[in-house]
Fold this sequence. Notes:
By secondary structure, this protein is mainly α. It is built from 14 helices and no strands. The protein is about 65% helix and about 0% strand. The mean pLDDT is about 90.
Amino acid sequence: MGTLHNPSADGNADPWRICAQLATMHYENFTVGSRLLPRRLRRHFWAVYAYCRTVDDLGDEATGDRSALLDAWEAELEACFEGAPRHPVMQALQSTVHDFHLPKEPFLKLIEANRRDQRLHRYASYKELLEYCEYSANPVGHLVLGLLGASSPQARRLADATCSALQLTNFWQDVARDFAKGRIYIPQDDMRRFGYTEEDLAAGRVTDAFRSLLAFEIRRTRSLFDEGDALLALLPVRFRVEVALFSLGGRTVLDAIEAQGYDVLTHRPVVSSTQKARLVWRALGKYGPWRRLP
């Protein structure tokens, strides 16, 4: 079995502080657990994020036997729910799970998504890709809804649309990075339809076919964002701005991809700090507690 690194051994034994550091040290298209949330909720968002971040790092960045490391992380998850976990992230998460009655299944699905990444590097169709999102992204939305106290079936369905859109956005943003890891998330049948090959991708060719292919995928992704927008009306008013920022950040990445002529192979589009600040003001103006949604 793989051995998990324990940050407590580095002299910083406060589980909550470790989760906060993980939530703030990584670049994201949106801010997790920002000051827009009530203070009592922030650390629980950080705990869930730290869990998700660690799973992804084990599946994408860890050296050694990643499958064994994921097995070790699952064992820690079992201890989180039923015993005494040793890893500080799990120690913090145990309190969050208890306080909000979070189920185990979403956490397990995130581990399974990273297990799939170890053995599955191509997706035949858009349907297959969305099925992967059911494990890699949608469980995060269910956990967030659990923290917000808004876990109705309709809310989960709409959150699935938003989370799948965010995952797809990340795929289109990271085509080059993923290919360097041996993975292609663009559906194989779409690549054939538009006449773009793996050889083209390996050579970094940004052809008209590639631009048309990515434009097609972005249109589908925007339709998912549009579908998920209805979630905001189901949320408590005080949480709408924070949740709206996820979609606004994702859409901003799609805008950036389009603005650079769909060339994500030579330049990775990002959301700058200035853009993030503008998005906050935009979200406050459109979804602030003083605004009534249709």
